[in-house]
Amino acid sequence: MSNTQKNNWFSILYRTRVKVCKEETTIINLSLLFSLLALLSAPWLVVVGFVIALALGYRFSIEKNASGFCGNFDEVIRDAAQNVKDVVDRD
What are phi and psi of 23, to 5 degrees? Predict the structure, then answer.
């Protein structure tokens, strides 16, 4: 798998959002990438949280190509890296 294909998969996982809403209020808006990492690292916590949220009446949805996250994933990584460098250099 080439670097471009890997970046494309990460970009798709980043732009696809898992949303938890109560009525019209968005409670959680996480990337699918983060959600999968959470599921892999603490599956019991994710399952318990999911069951409790359903019992409390929260609604789950998946939004593909979320408007606020449709930028290029490489730019997001570069910007994050630059922000970390700026903070480290500031001290």
Answer: 55, -115
Q: Which two tokens stand for residue 78?
A: 């570069």
Strand partners, 26: 21
Per-residue pLDDT of the chain (91 residues; tens, 9 = 90+): 665 666 677 777 778 888 999 988 989 888 888 899 999 999 999 999 999 999 999 999 988 876 655 555 566 667 777 778 888 887 6
CA-to-CA distance for 8 and 49, rounded, in angstroms?
A: 30
Q: Please, are residues 74 and 9 in contact by the beta-carbon 8 Å criterion?
A: no
Instruction: Determine which helix (DSSP H) or strand (DSSP E) holds 68, and give its type and residue range.
Output: none
Neighbours of 33 (CB within 10 A): 19
Beta bridge partners of 34: none
For the entire predicted model, the pTM comes to 0.61
